[in-house]
Every structure is written in C-alpha cells, then in structure tokens.
Amino acid sequence: MALPRFEGSFTQQEAIPDEAIAAATRVLQSGRLHRYNLAPGEVGEVAALERDYADWQGADYCLAVTSGGQAIQIALRAAGVSPGDAVLTNAFTLAPVPGAIHAVGGKPVLVEIDENLRLDLDDFERKASTGAAKVMLVSHMRGHLCDMERLAAICQAHNIQLVEDCAHTMGARWAGKRSGNFGLAGCFSTQTYKHMNSGEGGFLTSDDPDFIARATIMSGSYMLFERHGAGPDIGHFDRPRFEQPNTSARMDALRAAILRPQLARLEDNIERWNQRYAAVEDALRASPSLRVPSRPNQESYVGSSIQFNLREGDEARCLRLVSLCADRGVELKWFGHREPHGFTSSHRSWHYVTPQEMPKTDAILARLFDMRLPLTFSVEDCQQIGGLIAEAAEAL
C-alpha cells in the first residue's frame, strides 16, 4: 500500500526561542543596535556572542560578521589573497564560495570530489604540488568532511594556508576535532537554513592573533577593537589598523541577541537533526535504486540535510524522480540542472570562473539529489519522507 502524501513544509524553521525573543526585545527597547553603541563598561550582545562562540568552538578568537560569505571574503583577504592569486576550492559547492574568491580578485582552481561528496584528496594533492596556490578554501559541502588530517598535512607540505567553509558543518567533528579548527580559519553561517538562525550572519574563528586582527579591522571596527569579546591583545592591531580597508561587515546587536540562546541549544539540536537524518537514511538505503554517501567512522556529522544518487538514469529519469516526489509532497533539489536552479548550481554556471574540466564531479552531480531536514519535522515525518522517496524511485 502506498504511503500517504506528505503535507509538511521543507522551508519552515522552528520558532526563535522565547528567551531569544526576550533578548531581542531588550535590544530593540534600548535603541542601540550597532555593536559599538554601548554604555560605559557595558559588554554588548555581539561581544558576548563572540566570546560564547569561541569557547564553544574551542578557538582562541572569534569575529561576528554579517554573513558566512563575508566571513569567507574577509578570511581570504586577511590570509593575503591578492588580485590574480590562485585559490584552490571544491568543484562541488554553492555559488557564494567561488563568488567570495572572485570578489577578492582571486582565481578559483577547482578540485574534484569523490562518490561520497568529499574533496578528492588525490586530485587536491596533484594541484597543490604545482605551487600555483597558497590558499585552500575547502568547502564542507552539505556537511561532508574529507579526511581532515590528510588535508591539513598536504597543505602543510606545500605551504598552503587552509581556510574552512563550515557553513554546513557547525558542530561537526573529524576524529574528535571540530570542523573549522584544522587550519588558519573557520568560516560559519547563521543564515536561516543553517544550524543557528539569525536570517543572515556569520562567524570567523582562528587561533592566529595577527590574522584575526587584520580581519577585525576589515570588518569595520572603527578602531574600537577593544570592544570585541574574543579578540587578540591590542598590540596585534598596531600595523593592520593603518593597512586594512573597512568593508563594513559587522554583525548587529539584534542578531547577536537571538543567536546566544540558540547556541546554548545547539548540541541538543545536532542530536535531533541526526535522528531525523538516520530515519530518512534507513529508508533510502533499503531502495536498490538509490545510493546514500557513506560516513567514515572518524566523522561526527550534523544531519540537517541529506543527499543521495540514483544508481542509474539520464536527465529525463532524474527529472521524473523530482516530479514523482513533488506529487508525494517531498521537495527534492537536483544538482544536474543545466542552469542554476534555486539554491543549487554547478561550476558550469559560474561564468566568472575560468572553465575547467571536472569529469568526475560532473558524473556525480548528474544524478545527485539533495533535501533539507528542518527540525519542524518529526522522526516519524522523516520515516514517511524516506519511504515516499523510495516508492518514487521504484516507480521510475
């Protein structure tokens, strides 16, 4: 017997917690939303959030900014990327990643992925060995961590600075170590569909005081860097305060106020996401037509979305699966579209990037599907959703 149609929304997030709403109300009532508009001796919401997040992340320093994309751009500039410089990055990622490289004048050099959606470290090592790039911007796309120890070792061997895009891995770990802590910097997002929700927002973390000082000046600190909650000693600002441009990318007090209570709940929410991921995964793995990427034992992930491939099929068959799932109330995204579609795109659509042959990545994306798992879904909802996708796959 066919399962009933799913009636839930794939874009509906949980409500902002009551304590976050109360904190936001206090900020609104004060009228002081700018992060540096503080009373004498006051520690503002943004500075408090920076300290809280640095402690949670296990990083020495944290800078709160307007978006994850701005965190990446500032990180690249603070890492010394200049116009014309090559920057290595995944061929499979979302457009803001190559967009950030392009925005700072860099030239993306794309690296293949493997069948489990992780960076192909053999291809990375070949491209790293040429010496053309001094920065690797690894995108943990859709929450899949590659062997981070090997990645870091390759970067060290070739004198490459490692910057991590952790928009999809806030709270994930490799061999017990949090994503974002393997190189020079970690970049995080608090956009609505990420692991904390402030509409837009982001963090930049690092253990390098000179790097974070440069980044702080670039974020637009107006020489008020002593008002940061997780910044370096003041002496690290002596040079960059005269050398770094102001890019006006500060987080405001309102967003910080609603994020601090969410951070306190994040570990519990990670467990809730993973329960929902497991429910869908079990149903998909039962289908002989579908393949779900494997998860290595070293990886502790955050299952806020799930990806799978059709084992066989052309474009028409993939579009048919999307349609059959939509008829059942299940919203899938397909990475094989020839043009950008919703939040998905491929390297072939990034016309500001020099075209590069990525046959391995292209073959994987041609049958790759993606689905959000909002916490507004119950585990039972996810069991039903997984079953409906499996039903559709067998009906092709």
> Which structural category do the helix and sheet elements fall into?
alpha/beta
Instruction: Indicate the low-confidence ranges by residue numbers.
Output: none
The CATH first-level class of the largest domain comes to: Alpha Beta
Radius of gyration: 21 Å
Strand content: 5-15%
Q: Summarize model confidence as the mean pLDDT.
A: 96
Task: Tell me about this structure.
There is one protein chain. This protein is of the alpha/beta class. 37% of the residues lie in helices and 15% in strands. α2 runs parallel beside α9 (253-285), α3 (68-78) packs parallel to α4 (96-103) and α3 crosses α7. The protein is globular and about 70 Å long. The protein starts with 17 loop residues before the first helix and ends with a helix. The mean pLDDT is 96.
Concise account of the structure shown:
The protein has 396 residues and is α/β, with parallel strands linked by helices. The chain has helices spanning 18-30, 45-57, 68-78, 96-103, 121-128, 148-157, 209-220, 240-243, 253-285, 315-327, 359-365, 379-394; strands at 61-65, 86-90, 107-111, 133-139, 161-165, 173-174, 177-178, 185-189, 202-206, 290-291, 299-300, 305-310, 333-334, 368-372. It has a seven-stranded mixed β-sheet, sandwiched between helices. A four-stranded antiparallel β-sheet has the order 10-12-14-13.
Brief descriptors of the model:
37% helix; Aspartate Aminotransferase, domain 2; 396 residues; 7-stranded mixed beta sheet; globular; alpha/beta; 14 strands; single chain; Aspartate Aminotransferase, domain 1; 4-stranded antiparallel beta sheet; 12 helices
